[in-house]
Design goal:
Blueprint lengths: L4 E2 H8 L5 H10 L2 E3 L2 E3 L5 E2 L5 E2 L2 H15 L1 H8 L9 E4 L3 E6 L5 H8 L2 E2 L8 E7 L2 H12 L4 E9 L6 E5 L2 E3 L7 E3 L9 E11 L6 E9 L6 H8 L13 H11 L6 E9 L6 E5 L4 H8 L3
Parallel strand pairs: 9-16
Antiparallel strand pairs: 1-4, 2-3, 2-5, 6-7, 7-9, 8-9, 10-15, 10-16, 11-14, 12-13, 14-15, 16-17
Helix pairs in contact: 1-2, 3-6
């Protein structure tokens, strides 16, 4: 027969490899479900037969964040958080939040400035929907959805040229470029990671001044590889406007000088997932930001 014991003692028996002080911090900052309710006091008494709900994944995420905050990189990140703009929250519940990330801010900066837990990431110069968790338990549940490819994503981009067919798919394994280690590339190497991107051409537009043609496209990546959409579009000869790494530098210069576009025309427009706190499917939308809408309005 189990004697009544404190919650932190109970967790110490279940996770002997984790220090008591870390477990106490987890209880205070995250909380643990006891008898169906969240307990935030380490001295909460646990009696025989009472259910305590905590996952190893949630504990690991909490510990990793604690370790990172003490590193030089973590301290440098905190020092970069001054003067960040206020970011709109498109959706929010007890477990997670959908942020409307602006271009020019890294995912790491945004997550740290909001005091949240990372679930996935967007490139620094990609804008749009970024989902973050409010605690390690929600983080683990959301990351599982990304890992199992149960999240539906739609990005909007402007690419150079008239993309055909209007509905299609791009396939190609992605691996780090041998020529430039800062870039990713389509690769046939065994270690290349499979990548699939569906697309639909929403409209074909023309620059009346230069008579150049562009396609406004909705992309639905089925995998989540680094720079996936940017690499895939460039690999078939339709690079994203404004992309300094994979794009057309001459075209980028024109858009920069005429319209002030200083980044890639790529926006995380729509995302659907299951909210870990409500267990319901959620669909979040983010409209094009002003800098991208300005470019789109200049074409016809």
């Amino acid at each position: 027969m189990m004697k009544p014991m404190r919650l932190d003692q109970h967790l110490s028996q279940a996770f002997p490899e984790i220090s008591r002080s870390l477990l106490q911090s987890f209880i205070r900052e995250v909380g643990v479900e006891v008898r169906g309710r969240k307990a935030v006091r380490p001295n909460t008494v646990i009696k025989e037969g009472e259910e305590v709900d905590v996952t190893a994944a949630a504990l690991e995420a909490f510990i990793e964040q604690k370790k990172y905050s003490k590193t030089a990189q973590g301290q440098l990140l905190r020092s970069s958080l001054k003067d960040l703009p206020v970011v709109a929250r498109l959706y929010e519940t007890e477990g997670c939040v959908a942020l409307d990330k602006p271009a020019g801010i890294t995912t790491e900066q945004l997550i740290a400035s909001e005091g949240l837990f990372s679930v996935h990431r967007l490139d620094k110069d990609t804008s749009g929907i970024l989902i973050a968790a409010k605690d390690p338990v929600a983080q683990a549940a959301l990351q599982e959805q990304w890992k199992e490819r149960r999240v539906q994503k739609v990005y909007r981009a402007l690419v150079i040229g008239a993309l055909e067919p209007t509905d299609g798919a791009i396939e190609g394994g992605i691996f780090r470029s041998r020529k430039n280690r800062k870039k990713m590339a389509i690769s046939q190497l065994p270690q290349a990671r499979d990548a699939y991107t569906d697309y639909h051409v929403d409209s074909v537009l023309c620059d009346q001044g230069t008579e150049d043609v562009y396609s406004f496209v909705s992309f639905s990546p089925k995998t989540g590889r680094t720079h996936q959409i940017r690499v895939h579009t460039a690999s078939i000869g339709f690079p994203i406007v404004g992309d300094a790494t994979y794009g057309n530098l001459k075209a980028n210069k024109v858009f920069k000088e005429r319209l002030g576009l200083g980044r890639q025309f790529l926006h995380a427009h729509k995302l659907s997932f299951v909210d870990p706190s409500t267990k319901k499917k959620v669909v979040v939308d983010s409209p094009l930001p002003p800098d991208l809408q300005k470019v789109l309005d200049s074409l016809s």
